[in-house]
Design brief:
Number of domains: 1
CATH topology: Leucine-rich repeat, LRR (right-handed beta-alpha superhelix)
Helix content: 10-25%
CATH superfamily: Ribonuclease Inhibitor
Mean pLDDT: 92
Radius of gyration: 15 Å
Distance between the termini: 46 Å
Strand content: 15-25%
Largest sheet: 6 strands, mixed
CATH architecture: Alpha-Beta Horseshoe
């Protein structure tokens, strides 16, 4: 099934290791224009296996984030240089295993990332070239604000 999805969508689903339980990495770097909201929707059948989603420079929008939020084991998501906005990002707060989220060069602001600020697993939130201010930074792990 994975091979047929890769061929149909022009994306890569790469095993993180030889152990299938380590999950898959969704790679789009070789053809980011092929990945859009419809492609994410087609990936729902393997969504629980995807742990890393490399979606930078793809055509993913806020509508695609609704699908992405159902990929329950996601740990790392790169949405840099995509069309996502503050309207769509809060749905990603559903991802309980999310450790790293890159929103560089997107149309997000402080309101859009508020729901993510206190996610216990989230350790890295990249907000370069966004409308976010220092108040959107994650609390430090040593308890400082």
């Amino acid at each position: 099934m994975i091979t047929s999805l890769e061929q149909e969508l022009g994306l890569r689903l790469v095993a993180r290791s030889r152990n299938p339980e380590d999950g898959l990495i969704l790679r789009t770097v070789s053809a980011p224009e092929r990945c859009d909201d419809a492609a994410l929707s087609r990936l729902k059948v393997v969504g629980s296996l995807i742990v890393d989603a490399e979606l930078a420079r793809t055509r993913v929008t806020d509508a695609g984030l609704q699908t992405l939020a159902t990929f329950s084991n996601l740990r790392t998501v790169d949405l840099a240089h995509t069309a996502v906005t503050s309207s769509g990002v809060p749905v990603l707060a559903r991802l309980n295993h999310l450790q790293s989220l890159n929103l560089t060069a997107t149309a997000v602001d402080d309101a859009g990332v508020t729901a993510l600020r206190h996610k216990p697993a989230l350790r890295r939130l990249y907000l370069f070239e966004t409308k976010c201010t220092a108040q959107s930074e994650l609390p430090s792990s040593d308890g400082r604000p």
